[in-house]
């Protein structure tokens, strides 16, 4: 795992942090490249005036693929970022990481 400096999405202080997804970075990049290709394919289907239901089927597949990436990243966050904060014994930091995860889950559920 590598470390870097990150800013939380609430605009808080920066901190040195190990990202849990780093060990799977190549897999995530590969999945995102496939998703990018799917999006281009959908755009081409629209340009080629393909049947609406066929396009919607591809949009659904793209959405599922993105959800897979999102849930994988969330899982990595819980297993690494949240767990690391809890292990450090800083209750406030652990609660903040749990809140970040909760906020991310809420965003995923709404999307």
Strand and helix map with partners:
Layout lengths: L2 E5 L6 E5 L6 H23 L4 H36 L3 H20 L1
Antiparallel strand pairs: 1-2
Mean of all residue-level pLDDT scores: 85
Based on CA atoms alone, the radius of gyration comes out at 18 Å
Task: Using the alpha-carbon principal axes, give the shape.
Answer: elongated
Strand percentage, roughly?
A: 5-15%
Largest sheet: 2 strands, antiparallel
Oligomer: single chain
Write out the strand line-up for the largest beta sheet, numbering strands in chain order: 1-2
Helix/strand-derived category reads mainly alpha
Describe the structure.
Strand 1 and strand 2 form a beta hairpin. Mean pLDDT is 85; it is low at 1-7. 71% of the residues lie in helices and 9% in strands. The protein is elongated and about 60 Å long. The protein has a two-stranded antiparallel sheet. The protein has a single domain (23-110), classed as Methane Monooxygenase Hydroxylase, Chain G, domain 1, CATH 1.20.58. It is mainly alpha-helical.
From the structure above, extract its key features.
111 residues; mainly alpha; Methane Monooxygenase Hydroxylase, Chain G, domain 1; two-stranded antiparallel ribbon; 2 strands
